[in-house]
Backbone:
């Protein structure tokens, strides 16, 4: 047992897992509220981190059980697991200390894993674990199962309200304007790796799909800015030697139009599953 677990025992929470949240955007705040309210038995929120400490302190004061606001490098000593809900550029800084300590890191900036491939090696060397929640996607269990055989093709088509794509590096680089659209506009066609670079705040879902299946180069994607939709919509088409399937999910946006409400709920479900005596799904 590592020292962090021992210190947890000394404070009277021997059977609880101490959770830190890095990033207090729409997802981080929702998750913090759920954990602080005791929604997940056995999981205790102990700290958060955010760029704006003054704003973060005001937020945590509203929680059922307020916790300290710490710097990123101060999270690992007080927690057993970190949930990363921050800008993709901070991924390595947030999770590396946890992985080096043999702890777990739940990652929402999945696309950033492709530019931080050293993290898997760090986790392997030190006994840490990188966990990617299902998030705003569906069918990952089926894709993971199909990948045990041969997957011939994976394609995803994403349709988002134009506002949810605004500001993406790919749009800026190619001078693509999504304001005032009256009809759907295809703004990207390519593979998951390129999508992660061009839409770092939007397309974590396709990278999760790629990592579950045939990899980022072989996973194909279309992105549409569609003024006719009010929900972030993802359609997945998979053809394999064990099954062929087509699935569509329509996610209600959170306070941040780039992400869906279901993302925070998916993390809560993942944390609940960690301590459950009955676990459903692959």
Residues:
């Amino acid at each position: 047992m590592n020292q962090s677990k021992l210190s947890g025992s000394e404070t009277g929470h021997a059977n609880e897992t101490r959770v830190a949240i890095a990033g207090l955007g729409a997802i981080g705040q929702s998750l913090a509220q759920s954990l602080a309210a005791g929604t997940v038995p056995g999981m205790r929120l102990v700290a958060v981190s955010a760029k704006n400490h003054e704003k973060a302190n005001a937020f945590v004061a509203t929680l059922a059980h307020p916790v300290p606001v710490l710097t990123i490098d101060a999270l690992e000593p007080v927690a057993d697991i970190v949930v990363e809900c921050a800008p993709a550029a901070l991924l390595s800084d947030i999770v590396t200390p946890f992985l080096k300590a043999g702890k777990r890191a739940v990652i929402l900036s999945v696309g950033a894993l492709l530019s931080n491939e050293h993290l898997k090696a760090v986790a392997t060397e030190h006994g840490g674990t990188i966990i990617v929640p299902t998030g705003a996607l569906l069918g990952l269990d089926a894709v993971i199962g199909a990948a045990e055989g041969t997957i011939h093709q994976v394609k995803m088509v994403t349709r988002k309200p134009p506002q949810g794509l605004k500001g993406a590096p790919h749009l800026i680089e190619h001078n693509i304007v999504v304001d005032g659209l009256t009809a759907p506009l295809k703004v990207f066609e390519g593979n998951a790796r390129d999508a992660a670079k061009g839409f770092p705040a939007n397309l974590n879902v396709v990278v999760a799909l790629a990592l579950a299946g045939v990899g980022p180069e072989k996973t194909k994607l279309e992105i549409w800015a569609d003024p006719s939709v009010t929900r972030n919509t993802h359609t997945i088409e998979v053809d394999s030697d064990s099954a062929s399937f087509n699935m569509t999910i329509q996610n209600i946006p959170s306070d941040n139009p780039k992400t869906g409400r279901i993302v925070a709920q998916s993390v809560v479900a993942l944390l609940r599953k960690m301590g459950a005596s009955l676990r459903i799904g692959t």
Remarks:
- The chain has two domains: 3-136+262-274, 140-251.
